Amino acid sequence: MEPKVKTSQYVDIVTEKETNTRKLLNIIGLFLFGGMALMNVTNPLPERELTKESLLFIGGSAILYYVLVNIYFIGPIGRRIVFIFLTLFVCFSMFMAFYLAVNTTAH
Residue 39 pLDDT > 80, yes or no? Predict the structure, then answer.
C-alpha cells in the first residue's frame, strides 16, 4: 500500500471583503457621477454648448473611474497598473499647474 499524494494547486481566493469594497466603490461612483449629472439638469448652464461639455466631462470621468476601479480588483497586476496610472496623472497635473502659473495668457 502506497499513500496517494496530491500536489497542491494554486487557487485564487476572492474574499468577501474585496467584493464588498468593489461594490461600495461602484455605488459611490454611481452617486457621485449621478449627482453631478442631476446638478446639470436641476441647475442648467446658460449655453447649450456648456451643458454638452459638462456632460462629456462627467461621462468621461465616470468611464475612467469605473475602468480604474475594476482594473484595481483584477489582482496584483491590476493594482500595479492603477497605481502607475495615478502616479503619472499626479505628475502631469503638477506639471500643468506650474506650467500654467508661469505661462499666463491675457484675457
Answer: yes
